[in-house]
Amino acid sequence: MFVFGSVVRGRYIASSDIDILILVEK
Length: 26
Hints:
Elements: H1 2-25
């Protein structure tokens, strides 16, 4: 459970960073 939660959290943070980069490029 802990490992699975860490993976999901990592993906969520990564997707958030991508969204921020897209907004910056615009």
